[in-house]
Amino acid sequence: MSAILVPVCEEEAAGMIRAAAAAGRRLAISGGNTRSGFGSPVSADAVLRSAGMSGIVAYDPAEMVMTARAGTPLAEIEETLLDNGQMLSFDPIDHRAIMGTDGEPTIGGVFATNASGPRRLSAGAARDSLLGIRFVNGRGEVIRAGGRVMKNVTGLDLVKLLAGSHGTLGFLTEVTFRVLPRPKTEQTIIVSGLDDEAAARVMAAAMGLSVEVSAAAHLPESVRGRFLGGHLPEGAATVLRLEGLAASVPVRAARLRELFGRHAPVSANENEASAHLWRQIRDVAPYADSTSRPVWRVSVAPSAGFQVVAALRLEAGIDAFYDWQGGLVWMRMEADPEPDLLRRAIAHFGGGHATLMRASAQMRTTVPAFEPLSPAVAALSARVKQQLDPAGIFNPGKMAGL
Fold first, then answer.
1. Are residues 162 and 85 in the same domain?
2. Taking the model in full, what pTM does it have?
3. Are residues 173 and 276 both part of a single domain?
4. Which of 14, 121, 344, 392 is deepest in the core (most CB within 10 A)?
5. Three-state SS for 344?
6. Which phi and psi angles does 76 have, rounded to 5°?
C-alpha cells in the first residue's frame, strides 16, 4: 500500500513535494478521497492529501468572497455560507453515491475537478467562481495566482488551468472564490409526458424567456420513478427551476404554467421538495446503484443531447437523463462502455466531450476516462505540464497521459 502523506501546512506540503521530486517518487493527489475511482488508474509511490490543511482563512459576507484552505470540508463551507444567507453558486456535485466512496468532499477537490451541478446553466461552472489560488508546483515551489476581487486578473490563466486539472498540475493549498446570496424561495415547474425531442424544445423555449430559469433538466420515464421516491407525476418529467424573492417566483411560475400548460400537464414542487429534486439530479441519483456499470458524463450542444442518445440506442443498451437544458447527458451503459460508438455519435451531432465517470477496475485500465486530446491541444498540455510539474510526479496517467 502506498504511504499516505497528510501535511498540516503549505510549507510542509512543499517540503514533501521537493523530497518526492528529488527521489523521483510519484504522488497521487487527493483531498477527501471521494473521487478515488474516477479517471485512469494512477500508479504512485505515495498519496499526498490536502485534508490536513483545513479552515476558513477569510470571509466577509458583505464582500461575498471567501478564502479557505484546500482541505476544508465542503460541508463546513456550506454551513458557514448558510448561516449568512449565502451559497456556492454552481451547485457542486457530491460524487460519493455514484462512485461508491466515502470520506468528506473538500473545497480544494471541488475546484480541482471543476465539480459543477445544475445551476451551472445560469451561474457558470466552479472555475467561473474561482478568483485566486495558492498551490505547490512539481518543484516544491509555492505559487500564488489571482486575487480576492474579480477585477484583479493577475495570474488568471493559472487559476483557470488548475481548476479542473484533477491534481495533475499542482497541489492546491488555498482557494479564494466568490459566493452569492441564497434565494429566498424556489419552485420547480414540472411539464409531464414529453419525449426527449419535445423536452429539448420546451427547455430551450423556457431559457429564452425573461423568467430567469436557473436550471432545466429532462427525466425520461426510465428514470422518473427514481426521483423523489417515485412521487413525480406520471410520464417523463421536464423540470424547470425558478429561484428568487417570494413575490417574484409565483409570478414567473404562472407564466411558465400558462405557456406550457396548453400542450402538456403542468404541476409544481416548492422549496424543500424542489431542493431535494435538484440535489438528486445534481448527484445523479438514478445511477447511484452500488454497481460498477459504466456511467458517462457527456457534454454537447443542448439541441444534440437527445440525438446522441437516440443514435446510441440503435446499437447499445443505455439509460440516460439530461441536465443543463439537455447539454449534459448522464448515461449509464448496461454492459460495455462502448467508447468508440459514443464518440462517433458525439462527433456526428456537432462535437462535444465524454468523460467516463464510473467503470469496473478492469474497464478503467483499457478505456480512457477523459476525451482524447487533439494533437495541438495535447502538445500544449504537455508544455504546461513540463513547466509546472517537470518531473511528472503528480497523478501520472490520470488525464490523457499527463
1. yes
2. 0.93
3. no
4. 121
5. helix
6. -65, -40
pLDDT for the residue 39: 65
pLDDT in tens, 9-66: 999 999 999 999 999 999 999 998 888 777 667 889 999 999 999 999 999 999 999 9
DSSP string for 33-86:
STTTTSSS----SEEEE-TTS--EEEEETTTTEEEEETTSBHHHHHHHHHHTTE
Sequence length of the chain is 402
Q: By the 8 A CB rule, do 160 and 127 touch?
A: yes
**149 and 52 belong to one structural domain:** yes
* Residue carrying C-alpha cell 453515491: 97
Strand (E) or helix (H) holding 356: strand 352-358
Cα–Cα distance measured from residue 296 to residue 310, given in angstroms and rounded to the nearest whole number: 15
Q: Is the pLDDT of residue 157 over 90?
A: no
Q: Domain for residue 387, yes or no?
A: no
Last residue of a domain, which of 265, 282, 299? 282
For residues 99 and 159, state if they share a domain.
Answer: yes
Sign (positive or negative) of CA dihedral 256, 257, 260, 264: positive
> What is the residue range of 110's domain?
3-181
384: in domain = no
Within 10 A of 153 (CB to CB), how many other CB atoms are there? 12
Claim to verify: residue 135 and residue 248 sit in the same structural domain:
no
CATH number at residue 229: 3.30.70.2190
Give residue-wise pLDDT tens across range 101-124: 888 999 999 999 999 999 999 999
pLDDT tens digits along 259-317? 999 989 999 999 999 999 999 999 999 999 999 999 999 999 999 999 999 999 999 99
**How many angstroms separate the CA atoms of 121 and 242, rounded?**
13
Based on the fold, state whether residues 305 and 278 are members of the same structural domain: no
| DSSP-derived secondary structure letter, 259 | H
Alpha-carbon gap, residue 393 to 307, rounded angstroms:
41
CATH number, domain of 74, equals 3.30.465.10
Residue 385 falls within a domain, yes or no?
Answer: no
Give the DSSP per-residue string, 203-219.
HHHHHTSTT-EEEEEEE
How far is the C-alpha of 390 from the C-alpha of 340, rounded, in Å? 32
CA distance 285 to 280: 5
Answer whether residue 371 is part of any domain: no
What is the reported pLDDT for 146? 79
Q: Which of 58-62, 212-216, 330-334, 383-387 has the lowest mean pLDDT?
A: 383-387
- What's the CA gap between 17 and 48, in Å, rounded? 9
